[in-house]
Write a structure and sequence with these properties.
Blueprint lengths: L1 E5 L5 E4 L3 E5 L17 E9 L4 E7 L3 E8 L1 E6 L4 E5 L2 E6 L4 E7 L6 E8 L9 E6 L9 E6 L7 E2 L5 E7 L3 E6 L5 E9 L2 E3 L2 E3 L4 E5 L3 E6 L3 E9 L2
Length: about 240
């Protein structure tokens, strides 16, 4: 087993006025050669966008991009003709493929919007661009993990062009949980959205991250009132 710990206060940080953002991995003006990626996980940004502001039209290609609203509502528009709003409880995914142009803006003129932005390297390059989103309902009080993104077309998750499985768990009680990886060669990245957990005697607090490789399963001791993101992903 190998562990890589990323404390919340070690992340890259930028405040652009309209955008306050933390970068777990190298991104934009934050560069750390030891923080380029974890397997196919390339970006994990923790963004807060001011009222009435947003990311203007810009392009991506050959990247799987997932947005997870934490507070507030995003407005999405893209070159596929999509115009949608995304709020807490919903998950958005774009397979940028051969290229997609999009914008993401805050739907409120008075309140900020907070969301996690995740980039994952694709399994197959230059596919036709795709967009999807889904309401998973209120995940609170389930005290287990719900798979929100996977390569399995026939399950209830959003499809991703990669052998990656992303899950969110919300816990109202202290819970011991055994997570088994989906594929033997995958690694696991945990991100504590809220609350805390203990993994292999390592205490993780709000916005801490932990990468784990060379395991088939792992035990999590999760504190009540915690919300945790799990990324079960290829390492190459």
């Amino acid at each position: 087993m190998s562990l890589i710990f990323h404390s919340a206060d070690s992340r890259g940080y930028a405040n652009h006025g309209w955008l306050e953002t933390y970068h777990t991995f190298s991104f934009a003006n934050y560069f750390n050669p030891e923080r380029m990626n974890f397997g196919v996980l390339r970006v994990l940004n923790d963004d807060k966008v001011a009222a009435g502001q947003g990311f203007g039209r810009h392009g991506h290609d050959n990247m799987e991009i997932i947005s997870i609203p934490l507070e507030g509502t995003l407005v999405h528009q893209d070159s596929l003709g999509t115009k949608r709003t995304i709020k807490k409880g919903e998950i958005q995914i774009m397979s940028a493929g051969t290229g997609i142009i999009h914008s993401e803006s805050n739907d409120s003129s008075t309140e900020s919007v907070e969301f996690l932005q995740i980039w994952i390297l694709p399994k197959h390059r230059n596919i036709a661009p795709l967009y999807d989103q889904k309401m998973f309902g209120r995940l609170e009080k389930t005290n287990t993990f719900k798979t929100i993104v996977s390569p399995d077309i026939d399950d209830e998750s959003l499809w991703i062009n990669q052998d990656a499985y992303i899950s969110i768990g919300e816990f109202t009680v202290d819970k011991e949980y055994i997570y088994t990886l989906k594929k033997p060669s995958n690694g696991l990245y945990l991100f504590i959205i809220e609350g805390s957990a203990i993994v292999e005697d390592k205490v993780l607090q709000r916005r801490d991250g932990l990468g784990i490789t060379d395991i088939s399963s792992i035990k999590l001791n999760i504190s009540k009132n915690s919300r945790i993101l799990l990324l079960d992903i290829p390492m190459n």
